[in-house]
Structure to design on (219 residues):
């Protein structure tokens, strides 16, 4: 897997990551969502450099401008619910992308510290020969990414696969690196050291879905 950890190069991205982590600033849910969206825009911009480009001529009022434009058929798939603001950020740049949504949540059936990933909702166009971008802001154990990719398989074989995440734990990064094809790209804004016994990334930021959209009752 090609791992692109964007925080290795200091940039304005660090400001947005620092704000979503900050226990005071993150309480402003509108700012939290907007920061995730801005991070999505930056990750999308970096990812765009790896796409395929073709020559293009643009007629201006005064002449012809020659450039290259990407030609990929992109399907942008986000994991509900925390993936929604990240999806919006990516869609701001890949505005012609087709879109897919998939739900994945942790079900704590027997013990608060053990859970399984439940995939219930899935809306997806054909993925055959397309560029699939699979986005989820948190990559903790990596089980949600792997379970959702598995659920997408009946929709066709993508030409290339890009995973997008905001904060990952090293364990989750290692797990997806093992489970996905070696040609897969991971574009990630920060990689943290550990996961606690409840599956939260440390230091992480807490629960991204709750911070974006409010608390939910456990089923
Ligand atoms: O890498 P994993 O260990 O699978 O954990 C990451 C998943 O956990 C969070 O979702 P959550 O279950 O909290 O659902 P939510 O988005 O509805 O809050 C997050 O948005 C990821 O989907
Ligand atoms: O730290 C974590 C792990 C999973 N999901 C979150 O929202 N945060
Ligand atoms: Mg959550």
């Amino acid at each position: 897997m090609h791992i692109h950890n964007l925080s290795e190069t200091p940039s304005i991205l660090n400001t947005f990551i620092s704000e979503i982590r900050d226990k005071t600033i993150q309480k402003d849910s509108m700012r939290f969502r907007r920061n995730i969206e801005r991070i999505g825009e930056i990750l999308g911009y970096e990812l765009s450099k790896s796409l395929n480009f073709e020559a293009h001529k643009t007629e201006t009022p005064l002449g012809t401008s020659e450039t290259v434009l990407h030609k990929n058929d992109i399907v942008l798939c986000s994991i509900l619910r925390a993936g929604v603001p990240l999806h919006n950020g990516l869609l701001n740049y890949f505005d012609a992308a087709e879109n897919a949504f998939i739900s994945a949540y942790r079900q704590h059936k027997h013990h608060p510290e053990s859970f399984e990933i439940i995939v219930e909702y899935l809306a997806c166009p054909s993925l055959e020969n397309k560029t699939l971008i699979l986005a989820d802001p948190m990559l903790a154990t990596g089980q949600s990414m792997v379970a959702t990719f598995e659920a997408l398989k009946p929709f066709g074989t993508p030409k290339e696969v890009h995973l997008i995440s905001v904060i990952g734990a090293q364990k989750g990064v290692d797990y997806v690196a093992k489970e996905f094809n070696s040609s897969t790209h991971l574009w990630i804004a920060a990689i943290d050291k550990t996961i606690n016994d409840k599956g939260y990334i440390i230091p992480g930021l807490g629960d991204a879905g709750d911070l974006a959209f409010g608390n939910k009752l456990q089923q």
User: Anything to note?
Assistant: Helices lie at 13-21, 29-48, 83-93, 143-152, 170-179, 208-213.
